[in-house]
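2024-03-11 09:14:02 INFO worker-7 job=invfold-0412 stage=load source=structure_tokens
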């Protein structure tokens, strides 16, 4: 595949980003919400730092990564708010706690305690609890019934700030029905934990539906940056 020239890459990303931003505004308005309530996180996993510089120049400040090494390197090259949304391995927590500003994928108490112990003095790490929208054990996310106990654990740690809930629509199910369930879970959670009212949900294929069901943080990669290139 020919390499895109820098100018072409800029216009390509700019057009795609404009379209996503318009879709965010339209779906928020259609849901009777203020579009400014929705934070767009550009998921940059597998894309080069040159793309992040382009995103910066277009006003993007929130970047999401799934892997510790990649996030750690890119966060040195690009100033912004850095989100980690990948599966958490215990031995990576010390490193993730250094470069990430927000962790979306927390789903167990041991990891909560370990993150709290790993945060640098004076820093507060923002976190979401990932809730499972299917009942298969062993996948990412906790069952809704376990959320309150985890939330209370997060709140014991002054190094952590609980923003709210995160979810991924399960494969093989219409995201609309999954996000309907999520909205109910999220309402109940916000009632109990009013200081943690945010909801991280929605990716390239389903962020409009997520916004109509209350998402405040959407994580969008391929709709902005195109199909992922094979890792170099
Ligand atoms: C990769 C990823 C995204 C972004 O996915 P796209 O389909 O490229 O928008 C969002 N959330 C999580 C948890 C991911 O792993």
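2024-03-11 09:14:09 INFO worker-7 stage=emit residues=232
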């Amino acid at each position: 595949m020919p390499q895109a020239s820098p100018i072409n890459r800029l216009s390509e990303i700019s057009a795609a980003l404009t379209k996503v931003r318009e879709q965010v505004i339209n779906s928020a308005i259609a849901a009777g919400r203020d579009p400014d309530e929705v934070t767009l996180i550009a998921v940059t996993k597998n894309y080069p730092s040159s793309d992040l510089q382009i995103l910066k120049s277009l006003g993007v400040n929130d970047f999401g990564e799934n892997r510790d090494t990649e996030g750690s390197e890119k966060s040195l090259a690009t100033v912004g708010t850095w989100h980690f949304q990948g599966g958490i391995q215990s031995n990576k927590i010390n490193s993730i706690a250094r470069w990430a500003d927000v962790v979306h994928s927390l789903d167990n108490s041991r990891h909560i305690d370990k993150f709290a112990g790993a945060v640098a003095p004076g820093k507060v790490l923002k976190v979401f609890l990932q809730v499972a929208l299917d009942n298969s054990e062993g996948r990412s996310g906790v069952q809704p019934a376990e959320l309150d106990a985890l939330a209370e654990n997060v709140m014991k740690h002054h190094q952590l700030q609980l923003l709210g809930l995160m979810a991924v629509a399960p494969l093989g199910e219409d995201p609309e029905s999954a996000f309907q369930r999520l909205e109910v879970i999220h309402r109940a959670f916000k009632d109990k934990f009013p200081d943690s009212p945010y909801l991280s949900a929605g990716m390239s294929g389903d962020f409009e539906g997520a916004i109509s069901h209350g998402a405040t943080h959407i994580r969008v990669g391929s709709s902005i940056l195109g199909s992922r290139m094979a890792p170099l």
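2024-03-11 09:14:09 INFO worker-7 stage=report msg="The mean pLDDT is 95."
2024-03-11 09:14:10 INFO worker-7 job finished
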